[in-house]
Design brief:
The chain is α+β, with helices and mostly antiparallel strands and 176 residues long. The protein has helices spanning 21-31, 54-69, 80-88, 113-118, 153-156, 164-174, and strands at 2-8, 12-14, 17-18, 34-39, 44-49, 75-79, 100-105, 126-130, 133-137, 159-163. The two termini are 15 Å apart.
Amino acid sequence: MTTYVALLHSIVLTAGRRVIMSDLRAMAEDVGFTNVKTLVSTGNLVFETGAQPVAVVETQLEAGFTKAFGKHVDIIARDAATWMELVAGNPFADGGGSEVAVRVMRRPLDPSVIEGLEKRRSDPERLAVVDGDLWIDFGGKASETRLLSSLTTKRLGVGTLRNWNTVRGVARMIGR
């Protein structure tokens, strides 16, 4: 069995209605995944299944989500080894746990994306692309940055943002 991580882009179904994590675990089990665990209430899954490309895992989960909840949600998957590489690659490990975040991408970003984001960046914010994922040190509250409006699927492609605390929490769930 291979361990995978899956991150949901959004768990909001309708105004005032979010996906309950026990329902999300049940959906992943219905798809055929085992040892399914969730972390916090923001759509972070760790589970096991036979080795397969992450694109297949993403497709299975997205179809299962649509069937179970009646709405499409983009889901980004990584195998455990790739997740641990993401953790090790944090260029801002000196930053705070909730101040540092990574936009985990379905398709790797080119480092040149930084140039387009620079006009929205304020000091002391820092940006880096590592292995195709966008790392951000907000240097304060992420909710107060002008960068957020530039971190959309339309502008960057399918991806989802997780703070450093969540990234490390998922790594602990993997147990490596």
